[in-house]
Amino acid sequence: MFDIVIVANGNIPTKNDWSDIGYSLLVCTDGAAITLRQFDITPNIILGDFDSLGVDELSFPHSELQRSDDQETTDFEKALQYCLRFPDKKILCLGTLGGSADHAIYNLSLVTRYSDKLDLTLLNPTPEGHQWIFKLKANMRIYTPIKTIISFFPFHEATLNAPALEWPLTHTHITQLGSAAVRNRTTAEITDIECQGECLCFISTKHYPVVL
């Protein structure tokens, strides 16, 4: 389903939440490496300045450690920059939300920025199950169960057309400081969305929705 999984040091889903997701490369930030070790998962690549790891915790004999002391970028952005060498791969990002709010907001902005170069999806665990987050393209078709919760958040504004929703969007202009489009629901198994501008889509389903 995905080619690469990036794990950042935020609210990392439990091992059971993503054990059925296939991937060929696992990249993690240094702070997330300890959690993966507790899950008995060995990352292929560990990135960061390693300031969050003690000497004893740096022992990952089967992982490639890539150190960067660049303080101008977060560890999650370092992982995204590393993955720029794989522009055609589908990438799932875990642990990007939760923890401090400023990191969470910045990580969402990173997904918006890097999605022009990478095929990115975030998985965020919620009390309702799984929330999948990705940047909208100009035209998208999404397959989900009927009554799936769907939200939209612009960076910083967008105009949306999405008729197959409980509250249909018809040339609806949304902004960060104005009109919102959150907690809507699908009314069909196929949802066609047109988007002008920069906008993230949030879908709450157990399984990754088919997105075309």
Automatic annotation (TrEMBL):
What SUPFAM superfamilies does the database record attribute to this sequence?
Thiamin pyrophosphokinase, catalytic domain
Domain Thiamin pyrophosphokinase catalytic, first and last residues per copy: 24-117
**Single GO term (MF):** kinase activity
- UniProt entry keywords in alphabetical sequence: ATP-binding, Kinase, Nucleotide-binding, Transferase
Record-listed E.C. numbers:
2.7.6.2
- Entry keyword annotation includes tRNA-binding: no
Q: Which CDD domains match?
A: TPK
Keyword Endoplasmic reticulum among UniProt keywords: no
* Family annotation (InterPro entries): Thi_PPkinase, TPK, TPK_catalytic, TPK_catalytic_sf
Pfam families with a match to the protein in the record:
TPK_catalytic
- A single GO BP: thiamine diphosphate biosynthetic process
- Do you know which NCBIfam families this protein is assigned to? thi_PPkinase
Name under which the protein is recorded: Thiamine diphosphokinase
This protein's species is Candidatus Berkiella aquae
Gene name in the database record: thiN
